[in-house]
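To whoever is covering the structure queue this week,

Two jobs came back overnight. Logging them here so there's a record in the thread.

Job A:
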Amino acid sequence: MAINNRLYLNSKQHAERIADLRQRPSDLSNLGTSFLENEVDFVALAKTFDLYSPGSADTPAAIQEKIADCLAYMETHGKPALLEIKTL
């Protein structure tokens, strides 16, 4: 499973803390820490490793459906599968 929050959260939080400590605006904390405009495509990346992926999901219903798909695939083929869950 790949949890895609479209950013390096730890780095963003660190940038926010440093900005606060230095009494600077923290609105630039996304610079170099986020992929909001050009996100990583974990489904395509999985395919480069010859892994099965049913795609990405961002709602509870879609997540449940795609987890079932991954489990069925793994049980049938004995190979790993990747589900990308988008959280933002």
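Job B:
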Amino acid sequence: MRTVGMILGMMMLWPAAHGQGSPESQAAPAWADISLNDLHAFADPGANWSIVAEAWGNYTRTGALEKIKEGKGVVINHPSEKARTPLVTKQHFGDIEISLEFMMAKGSNSGVYVQGKYEIQLADSWTKLMPASGDCGGVYQRWDRARPAGSKGYEGIPPLQNACRAPGLWQHLVIRFRAPRFNAQGEKTGNARFEEVYLNGVLVQSQVEVTGPTRSPSTSDKEVATGPLLLQGDHGKVAFRNIRYRPLHIAPVKPPYKSPIIVTPGRQPYLLRSFMEFGGQKLVYVISMGDQSGLNYSYDLSTGALFQVWRGRFLDVTDMWHSRGQAQLALPLGAVVPFSAAPGVAVLADKGAPWPDTVATGSFREEGYELDADRVPTFSYLIAGVPVKDRIAPTAGRNGFERTITVASAPPGLYSRIAAAATIEQLGRELYRIDGACYIHIDKRYNPQVRSTGKGAEMLVSLAGLKQPFTYSIIW
């Protein structure tokens, strides 16, 4: 099947690769924590490792990764010429499932070595379109000094796609690892294997067998049945938190469609109307835009809400066609950063009034959208009789989206909600970090107000009296 402007792939895609459900949601053994209250869980930790409560980075500054707050729960690595050792657990593991969060400094490099020998690469691979084995989520190459120059590294496996976020943001890694097998004589009978690896909810490795240790800081290349978890500490600043493990568990999954229908943008942005699951509800007035740079978003036409963004592949629309399109769902194929399906602009009775979850009956009217010469849409709607134009386009550097909201003669009490999150941290005069998952860059002249809510915090900007379009950037 082929429609105008649509490219239909023939890839084998597991449902978890869509980023629409955590691989941890299936029934499984309970997780155990590796405590980060101190460094007692690790053997001879070097002076480059320390425990803090929170860290921060800056996507514009190479090597920037510092502590925000004293306390516990986060281990941060600051290597130096004298101190650059890995962090190695005292506990050893065989078949294992690992879940952890990490944060990279700009230009940094690290790795998670299962059994101290088999590495999943961590690196600042942000915005890279064609990742290699040395990029984030890759199975790092093996190494043989006896090989000819140029071929000493071999058997590295690149990630299936780049699901990496910007430096200074928290990222989530899940590794499902099967240890090598040995007989009673100690002879290896089966290679180690990465059953699955997920980066930010996206499947990046599947059924990858490793014939021997990858290039590593381990003191021995001898393969064994069990070994420690090793976090690389000699290549740059990195932080970790929420390190957990449990016995290897592979839950049964629904087999993938043999011929999934994949939408891939061409030289111009691609717009698609669909239904979409979000926040436990089915949104039925959704339009999604995909750009060839890998920047994508979804917008609810019934509320003017930019409710999610992602980077990577665009959409799997198989459920819009399979079984006569009963589900009618489009599924993002990259690492989704969710926002809110609540209205993007609203009238508040006063500045302390709560933000509405939905638009009041009769107060919102969608008026379509117009495409510019680059096929970027500007959405138009009326909210409480006030005309609003909303344009969301890739930034000039393709590191996120720039959103421009234009309101003519905004009345008192008209606000735009920029973000609603558990945490909103101000990192600079015009830079904020939202739940550790994305940045908001907003000019100080708009006087953004961050206020507490029952669920965390939200950032508002008053549109009343603005004499020019209001613009901010979302970077992740």
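Note for Job B: The radius of gyration is 24 Å.

Please reply-all if you pick these up so we don't duplicate work.
Q.
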